Amino acid sequence: MMHKYLVWLCCSLGLMTGLSHAQTAAQALPVAPVQVKDQRGVTVSFAQPPQRIVSVLPSLTESVCALGACQRLVGVDRYSNWPAQVQQLPQVGGGLDLNIEAIVALKPDVVLAAMSSRAGERLQALGLKVLMFEPQSHADVQRTLQSLDQMLGTRSADKVWSQIEAGIQAAAQLVPVRAKPTTVYFEVDRTPYAAGETSFIGETLKRLGVVNIVPATLGAFPKLNPEFVVRAQPDVILLSERHAKELAQRPGWASLQAIRKQRICELTAAQGDIVVRSGPRMAEAARILAQCIAREMAK
After folding, report:
1. Which tens digits make up the pLDDT trace of 146-167?
2. All structural domains of the chain
3. How far apart are CA 132 and CA 39, in angstroms?
């Protein structure tokens, strides 16, 4: 899932080769040592801001690019597909099947991985520097952006976070007052796993003025008994369009008013990528959710 993009642009002047703006900026980066603490609480030191980065979590890939350092990525996981320019980078597997040898061959200054990744310790044992993050709340996303910003030396985190906040606030205005408080159920996986109140998705839904049927006491992304959803009777169901058609076949779910009234937000694969990634596109995710909820409650 990758597209072409030229990272460095060089201009020839006779026998002399000039530097592109990107290269000049890279040379202008501070050379002072950098220390960054990841979500594990582990501090990693760098002699200078990393110039060769492998990211194996899409939200981290997107964050690096949003902070203005996309050109420093030299490899990504197979699920990283935004922005388009990362789609031409070498892929090193994903999830449970990361290709350790491929990562090592890219000679990264640092590998950015998920907290749940099993590859972190192995990569560290091979001498690579690894930072691990897996933001589950809005506060986690902000802290991750700040940590990456510190590592990159880009000084862009505050601006990116302000844009996210402004975008979420604007999205909340798209949900009409008559649709508040609407009760909603957001299904992350057909198991079913849901997005609870304390997840970044749940926090966005709250900002939109709707009520999540999955309380904070159940955790950020709990596995639910399907009967829980039946008892809760959400006004709107949000989930991947791939699984929407099977909802009525689940035991007892045909009685859900959301299904009877066809108040179902079916997210396309592209929309799903945006909504379920805890990164710089959370404002766009809020807009997608707000527009869908408003549309369904108008039925």
Report:
1. 999 999 999 999 999 999 999 9
2. 12-155 (3.40.50.1980), 175-297 (3.40.50.1980)
3. 6
